[in-house]
Design brief:
The protein is of the alpha+beta class. It has 12 helices and 11 strands. Strands 3-4-7-5-6 form a 5-stranded antiparallel beta sheet. A 4-stranded antiparallel beta sheet has the order 8-9-10-11, sandwiched between helices. Helix 5 runs antiparallel to helix 9.
Length: 310
């Protein structure tokens, strides 16, 4: 159906993002393709020791409460549990959260509000209100589970009538507020595969004005593999500070092969904040959000290595 109707069609699972945006005329599909009846997209299989496969229609509530996810993939359990409210987590799916639309102060408004300013580049307008001289849209990635899954080294499977392909979750995203997914319109996310997580320590921290419901204005996912006193593997991923989740690779390199002392964590946190480039397109001051990226990385690392933060 997606192939048949092309640009006029949009898939929907839980609908927690699609339906509100249809009401605000941000999405205006002529055809909705419901996925909720496709039972093959449900279920969680495997373990933390062997690796886990999660169907794209698994609810965020089920992912957050799954014993194997909680035991071996802490960052994902925390991220899924941090999305919205209990009711929305019961409706929303992990596949839908990976594909959730980007957000911006000038875009996530009612139709009449957007009409009053002449609309924005992301929908119906020709100017980015955040950076009027820029040729691109600067709306930010708003998925909580994406940074966590990238930190865990997960893969995502996409399927269309032409076949199936599997890519890194990191490669699912483009640095473009409008065309933010490297997924064709006729493709459906079918499953997420996470490699073995036993021995991996991971966490997710989320910044937002309210402690529930709100989308992230900063998300920090960190995963560490530690042997003895040394870090053998490290991933640090920042969300909601760009149009795609951002890996802080330079900061990761400082950790690998070294013992995570307080001094090293401070240096890593400072380096991790460098790629964060928040603009005035989300809640709270953008310069403060950039500073908090360093604070949250420091907190996450301190928690994972068991140090007492001073």
């Amino acid at each position: 159906m997606l192939t048949e109707h092309g640009q006029r069609a949009m898939p929907v699972s839980g609908g927690t993002d699609v339906y509100p945006k249809m009401k605000r005329r941000q999405f205006e599909p002529a055809v909705l393709v419901g996925l909720s009846g496709v039972d093959e997209l449900r279920g969680t299989f495997g373990s933390g020791a062997s690796g886990l496969a999660i169907g794209a229609l698994e609810s965020l509530a089920d992912v957050a409460c799954n014993p194997e996810v909680r035991r071996a993939y802490g960052a994902l359990a925390i991220a899924a549990h941090s999305v919205a409210t209990p009711q929305l987590r019961t409706m929303g799916t992990i596949g839908g959260n990976l594909a959730v639309d980007t957000r911006c102060n000038y875009y996530d408004m009612s139709f009449h509000w957007r009409q009053s300013i002449g609309f924005c580049l992301k929908k119906d307008g020709d100017t980015c209100m955040v950076a009027p001289s820029s040729p691109r849209c600067w709306a930010i990635s708003s998925s909580d589970t994406a940074p966590a899954l990238i930190a865990l080294g997960a893969l995502v499977t996409l399927q269309s009538v032409e076949g199936t392909r599997t890519i890194d979750v990191h490669d699912l995203y483009r640095n473009d507020g409008i065309d933010h997914l490297a997924k064709r319109r006729d493709e459906v996310i079918t499953r997420i595969e996470i490699p073995p997580g036993d021995g991996l320590r991971s966490t997710y921290l989320k910044l937002r004005r309210r402690g529930s419901f709100d989308f992230p204005i900063l998300g920090v996912a960190v995963a560490l593999g530690i042997e003895g006193e040394d870090v053998r593997d490290a991933r640090i991923v920042l969300g909601a500070v760009g149009s795609r989740p951002i890996r802080a690779t330079a900061a990761e390199a400082l950790l690998v092969g070294n013992r995570a002392t307080t001094a090293l964590i401070d240096e890593v946190a400072d380096r991790a904040g460098d790629p964060a480039k928040p603009l005035d397109n989300a809640d709270l001051a953008h310069h403060w959000r950039k500073r908090m990226s360093r604070v949250f990385v420091r907190r996450a690392l301190t928690d994972l290595v068991g140090l007492v933060e001073g």
